[in-house]
Design a protein that fits this description.
Helix content is 32%, strand content 27%. By secondary structure, it is α+β, with helices and mostly antiparallel strands. It has one domain. Strand 1, helix 3 and strand 2 form a beta-alpha-beta unit. About 5% of the residues have low confidence.
Length: 154
């Protein structure tokens, strides 16, 4: 999936900084690995820790149809800044009838408590309506998975 994302960014956002996606450590977990992490949180085996305690500096976390590039920041407002790339068919995000697969991007930051803040993105396609409420819903569904992974590697 990462090669498709890189190709999509090259084609649609030629001025984007690809090095962020190319330089991040890539981690993909299987469904069974994700279930083990979720179970470890449920049983108390994994203890809640601040996001800044995670050793990851820059990585790409892949689960399902979602890739999240996270980068540790030292600005005090956020522990990490991130870009979520969700692979979807464009019929669901465009008003035109186009069944091609593509990526929808959401930029955000999150603090030590994993509370997210939407940030502006430069990666929107022409005629795409940015639905901040919908973006927040996607983040709310993705963050427990990302948080569990970050706790597991901390």
């Amino acid at each position: 999936m990462l090669p498709r994302l890189i190709g999509f960014i090259k084609q649609n956002y030629p001025d984007a900084n690809l090095s962020e996606w190319l330089d991040g450590k890539y981690v993909q977990l299987t469904d069974s690995q994700l279930k083990k992490i979720a179970n470890a949180i449920h049983t108390g085996e994994l203890i809640d820790k601040p996001a800044s305690k995670c050793p990851a500096e820059q990585l790409i976390f892949h689960f399902g149809d979602t890739l999240i590039l996270i980068k540790k920041v030292q600005d005090g407002q956020y522990a990490y800044q991130a870009e979520l790339a969700w692979e979807t068919d464009f019929q669901s995000i465009h008003s035109v009838r186009n069944k091609d697969k593509g990526f929808y991007f959401i930029n955000f930051g999150f603090d030590d408590d994993y509370k997210t803040t939407l940030l502006p993105t430069q990666k929107t396609l022409e005629n795409t309506f940015v639905d901040e409420q919908g973006n927040q819903i996607v983040l709310d569904k993705s963050m427990p998975v990302l948080k569990a992974f970050m706790l597991a590697i901390s």
